[in-house]
């Protein structure tokens, strides 16, 4: 049976956020953490070594694994914001978001100062 490599763990989220070297990225992630906490009404949990996740969602893939409802990860080149939705269905909101790139269910930003966080909240609220 397949087992997920990325799982929730007991790593301290605040300690992880404080360890982000780039000051602007750290500030963005701390703000993003608070936005997601407010929207999901869930406390952040570390998933693997570098993903901060909020809430639980049954991922209805072939193995039906639990996954977080929303989350983010400060990657080398950008901050990855994970959603549980097909972003192709939200092009109108995304067109107002600001400077970003996207995948099927992820939004990639350099910094929160590059996007409209009110629009981001709408996108995230729409999914929880």
Unreliably modeled segments: none
Q: How big a fraction of the residues is strand?
A: 15-25%
- Using only CA atoms, what is the Rg? 14 Å
CATH architecture: Alpha-Beta Complex
Quick one: overall form? globular
Largest sheet: 7 strands, antiparallel
Order of helices and strands: EHHEEEEEEHEEH
**Structural domain count:** 1
Distance between the termini: 29 Å
Helix/strand structural class: alpha+beta
Q: Give the overall average pLDDT.
A: 89
Largest beta sheet: strand ordering: 1-2-3-6-7-9-8
Name of the CATH first level: Alpha Beta
In CATH terms, what is the fold-level topology? Aspartate Aminotransferase, domain 1
Portion in helices: 25-40%
Strand count: 9
Give the helix tally: 4
Oligomer: single chain
Question: Can you describe this structure?
Answer:
It is a single chain. With 128 residues, the chain is of the alpha+beta class. It has one domain: Aspartate Aminotransferase, domain 1, CATH 3.90.1150. It has helices spanning 13-18, 23-40, 91-95, 117-125, and strands at residues 8-9, 44-47, 51-54, 57-59, 65-67, 70-74, 79-82, 101-102, 106-109. A seven-stranded antiparallel β-sheet has the order 1-2-3-6-7-9-8, with helices on one face. A two-stranded antiparallel sheet has the order 4-5. The mean pLDDT is 89.
């Amino acid at each position: 049976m397949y087992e997920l490599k990325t799982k929730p763990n007991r790593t301290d989220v605040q300690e992880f956020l404080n360890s982000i070297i780039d000051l602007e990225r750290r500030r963005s992630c701390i703000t993003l953490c608070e936005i997601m906490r407010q929207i999901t009404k869930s406390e952040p949990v570390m998933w693997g070594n570098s993903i901060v996740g909020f809430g639980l969602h049954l991922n209805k893939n072939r193995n039906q694994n639990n996954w977080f409802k929303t989350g983010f990860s400060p990657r080398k080149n950008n901050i990855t914001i994970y959603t549980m939705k097909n972003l192709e269905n939200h092009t109108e909101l995304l067109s107002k978001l600001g400077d970003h790139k996207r995948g099927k269910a992820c939004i990639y930003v350099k910094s929160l100062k590059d996007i409209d966080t009110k629009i981001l909240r709408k996108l995230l609220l729409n999914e929880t």
